[in-house]
Amino acid sequence: AFRAEERHGSGSKMPLVPSFRIKLEDQILQGLATVGKFDGKNPCLTCATSGGKIFVYDPYSRRDEQDTPKVRYLNINKNITAVASGRLDPNIGRDILLVGTNTDVMAYDVEENRDVFFKEVPDGVNAMVCGRVGTHNQQPLAVVGGSCNITGYDADGEERFWTVTGDNVRAMALADVTGDGSNELLVGSDDYEIRVFANDDAISEVTEAEKVVGLAHLSGSRFGYALENGTVGVYEGRKRKWRIKSKNRVTAFSAFDLTGDGRKEICVGWSNGKLEVRNQETGEVVYKDSFKSPISALLRADYRQDGGGDDMICCSLDGEVRGYKTQGALGGAGSLKDDEFMDENVKEETLVELNQKRQDLLAELKGYERNTRALYNAGVGGETETTGTIPKDTKVNSSLEMNPEEGCGEVVLSTNNDTVIKAAILFSEEIFDEEARFVYFPNPQRVAKVAIKPKKDSAADVAIKVLVSSRTSSTYHVFEVDFRLPRFCMYLPLKALPQVPASSVQVRIAERLVKIAKWIDDAFMLQTSREVDDYSEECGCHMVCLRDSKPLSIRAVNAGDDGCDVVVHCDDMDTCGEVIQDMTKALGLGDVECTADFPYDMERLRETLTRVDEYNALRSRLVTDVADASNTIKHLVIRAEDSRILKDWKTMTRMYGELRDLNRELIREHQKRVENHEALLAALRDVNQTIQKAAKLRAGGPKTRMVAACRQAIKVNNVHALFKIIQLGADIAEQTAGFE
Predict the structure, then answer these.
(1) Quick one: which of 691, 704, 726, 708 has its CA closest to 590?
(2) DSSP string computed for 713-734
(3) Which residue, 45, 548, 552, 609, could crosslink 57 as a Cys pair with Cβ 3.0–4.6 Å?
(4) What is the pTM of this model?
(5) Could you give the 3-state DSSP secondary structure of residue 80?
(6) How many other C-beta atoms are found inside a 10 Å radius of the C-beta of residue 693?
């Protein structure tokens, strides 16, 4: 089953040895591969291939058993979107295969050739993992990520876990991030967010610049991530350690300890067929190999079962599979340092890079020497317009201003003397789609302004390179400025609002009014706290968002010993949630319950739920029509074949003509089903997003209980209870409406 591979990949000296190579006849689709011990002993490579099929490659099947081929096929006959495996039922002692499609999820016992369970998933399946989650540690779950929600099923197909996310789930990983002994769930979604869920509650969120397509746990709170735009990096909690970007797409992403030093490396498969292994501390490439086709999956298993530990299994689109082992697995003398196994090509690239830096520094030094000589020859002891020299104490200052006429913010750059700013380069992946912006000023002045308009309310770091010179000089001096953009920088303060928004959220928090005023100042760049002391009754502010012109009002009222009542008025539930979450984090609050009043959002939710019912009814009718048509097809085929045997050509021709017409009708019905399913997905996404927005109005236990109660209300189709839960929270809604 295996053929030894002598080639060590690009002359690498890293202790990562190709241990086997397999060439399969079938394609391996991107991200749709797993390794499972379906008989409880031997690992089998299982992959989705074209035509809605899954193949199971078993290298341990005996040659004399002709009825047990090495490759077995499962016909799913649907578009396969996710594949996973795991010991879903510990009592049976073997792995179960999990297959997800656009409409359902199936758990399949490969050994006994039977379905363990089959569940319809109207939201679709985008990602799957198998394992224990949070307090559900008593039993493993099949965790399914769909359209704005995550569902966990036990071995019987019963739903044991459910929560909502901001958008379609694309990547998931199970790991003990908090060190409490139970697994948290890392989730990456299409809204550029990476969330960490402890049970049903999102305990951490990180905003990225693109859709998240890969996640891998490293150690503790450290994890690696991959984005749709070719970015790969590592986070330590909420702090990014490093990132790199490629022009190619990430097609496979994982983490393994390949160097034998006890620390996992980041492993990345690219669309151009490159395989890279990067140091988790620095992001440096320590190994790379290449395939003839894009990498489809990176897996881990003791595939050879030779006692040497797990292999890293790399699968490519054209069916090529390679396995790699570490130095420790080969009985080597311990782990080596990075520079001992650095790829020769990487060393050469490093030397080229260092040589280029040397040339740049030499050119810069020559420029300084030329300017110094010109200054000395001119007999001038200070700055000069001809040499390009500027005063030694030149500084560049930065600040932020609002421009209501243009509907944007402006980063204001200024010098402290007569020098001028001729251009600026701003780097920020959170603000600019292209991650950087170059601005040239035709008429350079001491003060320069750069317009910015962030798409979301999120804090961002902006690295700025400012080109400064004297007015007539062609020589530039580059100043580097680090600028921190506040989270709510797109809000313009107003003295009063022309009309108070109809929607609002009210929370009571055990905090002094002075601290709340200080938070308002920090979050919105205001000076509210100047007029507030321990004897003040209330404070607040009025603003308008320059992005969409929606007004926002915040008012805090002293409630005596109980703390303060904070009321946020805004017709955008998502904005209110962002404000509540920022306040909760800044003030270190725990459980926060609220009273929410969002008439426009509730009316839209009511209309959406009505559409969901209509789509489900239409779906049931279309399924019935297809079943009736199938029976008619069987009848027509039998009559046509009987007519052919009896040589009744006229009847046979008529039967086949009716079959042709019925087939066309079925094709039209199928298109209706597809359109109805897409509309149903969009409606369910809106429902889940509304629940997620309502959850962000709360924190801690009330947030978790609200999500669970909303799920229960949707299950029993209790729309009235759902609205009460969103408005008052799960606890009060249960008391007032008797909801269980």
Answers:
(1) 704
(2) HHHTT-HHHHHHHHHH-HHHHH
(3) 45
(4) 0.78
(5) strand
(6) 22
